[in-house]
Amino acid sequence: MLKITMCVIVFPFSVRGCTDIICCVLFIVVILGYMAVGILAWLYGDPRHVLYPRNSTGMFCGIGAQPSVFYFDILKCVTSINIMAGTLNGLQCPTTQVCVEKCPDVFWALNPIAYLPKAKPQDYFNQSLCVPSFDLARTTLKVKDIVDQELCPFFYTPTISGECYSSCCFVSKKLSVITSVNMYFPCVSCSDIVNSFKAKEIGVRIFEDFASSWQWIIAALVIAMVVSFLFLLLLRFIAPVMVWVLIFGVLAVGAYGIYHCWWEYDNYRKSTVSITDIGFTTDIKLYLQVKETWLAFLIILSVVEGILLLTLIFLRTRILIAIALIQESSKAVSHMMSTLFYPLITFVLLVVCVAYWGITALYLATSGIPVYKVVALNSTRDNCGQISGNETCDPQTFYNSTDYSWCPSARCIFIKYNNEGLLQRNLFNLQIYNVVAFLWCINFVIALGQCSLAGAFASYYWALNKPSDIPTFPLSQAFIRTLRYHVGSLAFGALILTLIQIVRIILEYLDHKTRAALNPCSRFLMCCLKCCFWCLEKFIKFLNRNAYIMIAIYGKNFCVSAKNAFMLLMRNIVRVVVLDKVTDLLLFFGKLLVVGGVGVLAFFFFSGRITLPGSNFRTEMLNYYWMPIIVVVVGAYLIAHGFFSVYNMCVDTLFLCFLEDLERHDGTVQKPYYMSKNLMKILNKKNRGPKNGKGKD
């Protein structure tokens, strides 16, 4: 009973209440509003405007049996820029477009004899490439009238890369990529068209490489996961050796640098050329041929080496504490294997947030009804001066009507989306709300993961007898406890970070828009502002992280936890710096080991330098053998980062618990130490009384 009482005093899991209720309510209201915005966007938006192109009648291509859109005369897409850019916003390519089942694969041009009076149009045109409402078999129009009204194309070319197109046919998915900014102005220049098809060809080859090697890519990523897992578990045994080897390795590199600088200085000591004779030059090699340069390097390296040696001598105890905490963290992770896979939950939640934001932004951007207006492409030649460009039209009925038959060049052109409705007038505000809510949700998800992991690892530290006193399912308990009591505190910390990120986004936007107009002084001030807010964001992330640990331990509100964590760290600033640097050094080495090792293995395998017995994989099967290697390296880094982020959180949590343990307890029966025997031995402390087993390894 005494043990339970002391546990409650130190780590009050059972004595908790809801914290930062006002911020919790505000966060819930924002989430409900975010859901309402998504529903409105879903009701009024139509992403088909972005995903699929339209033909000249306003119908979507890519839905059904006609996946491609065919342009009669793509040159008009380019020449219309200068003709009408001053009067229209967002031009559709001003040539007839039809949905087709298959793009042309041959060259074809209308035979000049087709213009003879007795020529029949059906003998020269292809019905499948004509306007759907136009029937070649029943028409009474002459060939010249058909060409002038663009009812059928008078020439086309095969859509292959390496050619400059006079007519063009795009698959709808490709068109949606090309026209991501202005979906109704797909044709910019011939070089863009050629590059788009080259990109498609390269993309197909890369896809083929993935199809041939995906099993081996997954195998390499599994190896990266296993290596990361084993590295963390083995740290409890190899951490002391690794830390001292890395430290003395840095000192050895510095010592060699000093020797090399002295050797170079001795070689150039008799030289009569000094650095003043060289002056200022961009040729760095000249500076390396004078003795003053090597003397400066020698002095700098000697000072740095001396500082490192003094630091090692005076901070050796703190380095031992850092090593012991790293070993203890490895033990904690070994008792809570599920924590290593928690980043998957965070990843899924982040993917949900990003997907919801992207879909909402897409539906909001397409929530207005497309507005079409009548435009005369050749108003002077065709006597179409009466068309002002303000008359609206319906592309589905325009080309079948005779309202503008007196103007052959009249076209129904997409101008913009309707912005006259209540929703459309507030689209910008809703998009801003979408971004702010998205950032808040992202920061909240990260905070939830940090607080849940901190609660699990804290329950390990404050167990009197490890591992028997460790709670059952500690991660699940910490996750539920965090959601039940501390949503408001996490939302509070996430909101502060979100506001700073919004300011940074605004500064980046202003810098991008005014970069050319700013003078050097203004640009310097802008850089200073961006740098200050970058530093502020890093500090807030550091403060929030430790505040969440204190929330997980004591259940206080965000402000009190942040204050207590900050003051506790400031009272032990030297220990904080040493532990942080030692941990960073170890985890950097671990990431280098995982990413470098798996990357080298992937390079030798996919390049064909090594083969596995019984494997049917050959490097000749790949078009670009470096693509699987890049995927493996990036994937290995993400896996290592996920595993090591959990380990880093464990180290930070145990460190704060250790500092609290030192300040609140004295080793008596009433206030025993909860740290491990190794830490007590380093600090020359022990538990007094009949229960000396507390804090055992």
From TrEMBL:
Primary residence: membrane
Keywords of the record: Antiport, Cell membrane, Glycoprotein, Membrane, Transmembrane, Transmembrane helix, Transport
Subcellular location: Apical cell membrane; Cell membrane; Membrane
Segments traversing the membrane: 21-44, 214-234, 241-259, 294-315, 340-365, 437-464, 485-507, 547-570, 582-605, 625-647
GO cellular component: apical plasma membrane
Membrane disposition: Multi-pass membrane protein
Listed name of the protein: Choline transporter-like protein
Lineage of producing organism: Eukaryota, Metazoa, Chordata, Craniata, Vertebrata
Domain of life, source organism: Eukaryota
